[in-house]
Amino acid sequence: MTPSTDVPVADGDLLRALSQGEPQAVARLFERYGSKMIAFARRYVGDEADDVVDELMQRWLEQPPRPREAGKITSFLAVSVYHASIDWIRRERAAQGQVPRSSTVQSDAPRTSTVTLSADSRKALDGRLAAALERLSSSDRLLLESHYGHALTADECMALLGITRAAFHQRLHRARTRLLGLLETP
């Protein structure tokens, strides 16, 4: 997409134009936030992030999105890219057979566990974790995967969800508790 030389557009106006199906809004949005969207998608799909974001932009050209709040563009983009990445992962799973979810989320954090698991035990644990994550609500899954997958910092998660630090910690605790409950049930 070519950079625009027009007068800068406020984020709220940009989202409104996007929801009205204006093609130049997609170009401006990509110009302004494309690199961040690709970086966020890369956490979930690795080298396919460019394709995921390109596909999302193409989808928006064909069928304009309906953002809930015009003032929260970063939240809208993060959620949109997350869902586009998950859709891509699911299509890949369907095309290639079942791929463990944990192998698609890339973490930069070093493993600090002192317990050594065999490959079979690790695979079984990854499978249980993936199944439990699938059963969580999309908001709990987004919060856990974004925070613990190191896709977003705590401050970015709070901005994404539009919540305070106390609310973030409370929701994170509740999501972890629900995940633990799902892992403990057979």
Explain what this protein looks like in three dimensions.
It is a single chain. The chain has 186 residues and is mainly alpha-helical. Helix content is 68%, strand content 0%. The chain has helices at 11-19, 23-45, 49-62, 73-96, 119-135, 138-148, 154-161, 165-184. The protein is built from eight helices and no strands. The protein folds into two domains: 7-99, RNA polymerase sigma factor, region 2, helix turn helix motif (Rna Polymerase Sigma Factor, Chain: A), CATH 1.10.1740.10; 117-186, Winged helix-like DNA-binding domain superfamily/Winged helix DNA-binding domain (Arc Repressor Mutant, subunit A), CATH 1.10.10.10. Helix 2 (23-45) packs antiparallel against helix 3 (49-62), helix 2 crosses helix 4 and helix 5 (119-135) crosses helix 8 (165-184).
Q: Could you please say which CATH topology of the largest domain applies here?
A: Rna Polymerase Sigma Factor, Chain: A
Q: Please report the total strand number as a whole number.
A: 0
Name of the CATH first level of the largest domain = Mainly Alpha
Helix content: 55-70%
What is the overall number of helices? 8
Topology order in helix (H) and strand (E) letters: HHHHHHHH
Q: Helix/strand/pairing class, anyone?
A: mainly alpha
**Structural shape:** globular
Uncertain residue ranges: 1-5, 99-113
Question: How many strands, what sense, and barrel or not for the largest sheet?
Answer: none
| CATH level 4 superfamily of the largest domain | RNA polymerase sigma factor, region 2, helix turn helix motif
Estimated radius of gyration: 18 Å
CATH architecture of the largest domain: Orthogonal Bundle
Oligomer state equals single chain
Q: What distance lies between the first and last C-alpha atoms, to the nearest angstrom?
A: 50 Å
Strand content: under 5%
Query: Overall mean pLDDT score?
Result: 78
The total number of structural domains is: 2
